Amino acid sequence: MPALPLDAERLIDLALEEDLYLGDATSEATLDAATSGEGAFQAKEDLVVAGTAIVSRVFERLDASCTFDRADGAYVARGTWFGTAKGSLRALLAAERTGLNFLQRLSGVASLTRRCAEALASGGGRTRLLDTRKTTPGWRRIEKDAVRAGGGTNHRYALGDGILIKDNHVAACGGVGEAVRRARRRGRALLRVEAEVVDLAGLEEAIAAGADMVLLDNMDDETLAAAVRLAAGRVPLEASGNMTLERLPRVSATGVDFVSMGALTHSARAVDISFELRAT
Known about the structure:
Blueprint: H1 6-20, H2 25-30, E1 36-43, E2 47-48, H3 52-61, E3 65-68, E4 75-76, E5 81-88, H4 89-122, E6 128-130, H5 140-149, E7 163-165, H6 167-173, H7 176-186, E8 193-197, H8 200-209, E9 213-217, H9 221-231, E10 237-240, H10 248-253, E11 258-260, H11 263-266, E12 273-279
Helix pairs in contact: 1-4, 3-4, 4-5, 6-7, 7-8, 8-9
């Protein structure tokens, strides 16, 4: 198994510590240390799997093995057995909850992302789905990995990855045009400058000031379509705010280049996966 990033290893440290800092009183009281077994993961609903590497590492940390026969990004139908863990029963039960927490949460992100990406595609446009920085603290890398597994595209990973002028920057600078001009003068040359606007006048001002990309915030479908006509291909356009699964086909049909959704990570529901154990 390829090495995990250090931040993922630190997450595993924290997760195992919070669950096992006093040991596993139940397993230690009921199971012989020498008894081995195996367990299997079953999808209790249709899902897109993600997080298999970090889950395998959880079991490995406790001297058990864990393998999956579905790669991240694969569709798994309800009722399917798609992974196996082997080792001492004590190790398997100590790893079970932590492993499932990662697997259910990350597969939930991937599953929601897949549904949203498919909804966008059904609108007949070429709109791509972006995530945001609205991630679980400490989980950003692995949640963004899950977004990619679901068919989405990562936006900024951190504040230093690009210049994104938001409403508070605009207010502090006295206007979107001035904020873009300052960013062009002062920002690192290799960083793209994106500006958020709330109306068509702001869009024109941002383009005139030299923005590389414009975020259209909380615009209705009619205004998004008007923004696409006004921009006329001069800059890529990203639509954000008040996005729902039902609305995505209509937004795609307006012709915007991107849709960003914080809900992919901040509101994804953990999917239902079970881990069933047997002694050997």
